[in-house]
Amino acid sequence: EQLSDGEILELLELSEGANILTLDLEVVRERLLRSAWVREVEIERVLPRTLTLRIAERSPVAVAVLGELYLLAADGTMLDELAPHYNIEKLVLIRGLTDGDGVVPARAALAGRMAAALMERELLAALVSELDVSEGDGSVTVRLREPAVTFLVHSATMVERLERLVPPLDG
Q1: Is the bond leading into 147 cis (omega within 30 degrees of zero)?
Q2: pLDDT digits (tens, 9 = 90+) for 32-45
Q3: Looking at residue 168, what is its pLDDT?
Q4: Rounded CA gap, 151 and 60, in Å?
């Protein structure tokens, strides 16, 4: 979906006419996994001269604010800088991923999980405009679109608490 055939070929770093019998498939797999978009790879030799690739890509679940805007996957991986043409209408904005030393992996993972949980529930995703994970310890500051409300919740109860809000806001 995200990676073109040309980008995949570039990641493979294979010379034309490479012998697939002597090719180290684990090295090829690792090359593909260097792309943040690639979540999982299966490679199969099909004799006499074909490699079959099955690539599972990550999908963005949020937009991370890191000076620049980046697409964030459910597992906390920064996928790519946000391109102007990318449709972010359904993605929540994420703040608080960094400390003085850069991106905090635990915060990125938490933000990815929370954004993915919201995306699974379309009504909740439409309700939330922003998540801030700077508090740490599983705490998440949630900012709603309408009404403009901000509150602090624990990540374990965020979806449940938001679901309790939906009926009163719907009615």
Answers
A1: yes
A2: 999 999 999 999 99
A3: 59
A4: 24
Contact 126, 97 (CB under 8 A): no
Three-state SS annotation for 121-161: CHHHHHHEEEEEEEEECCEEEEEECCCCCEEEEECCCHHHH
Three-state DSSP state, 50: strand
User: Of the candidates 122, 165, 120, 121, which has an alpha carbon nearest to the alpha carbon of residue 142?
Assistant: 165
* Helix, coil or strand: residue 64: strand
- CA-only gyration radius of the chain, Å: 20
Whether the Cβ atoms of residue 131 and residue 116 lie closer than 8 Å to each other: no
Structure tokens at 166: 């939906």
The 10s digit of each residue's pLDDT in 122-135 is 888 888 999 999 99
For 81, list phi and psi in degrees, rounded to 5: -65, 140
pTM of the model: 0.87
Q: Are 70 and 79 in contact (CB under 8 A)?
A: yes
Q: Letter for the amino acid at 13? A: E
Q: Mention every residue, 6+ apart, whose C-beta is less than 8 A from residue 91.
A: 60, 61, 62, 63, 71, 115
Asked whether the beta carbons of 127 and 145 are under 8 A apart, the reply is yes
In the numeric block, the tokens 């019998």 are attached to 21
- Residue 47, token pair as written in the block: 């004799």
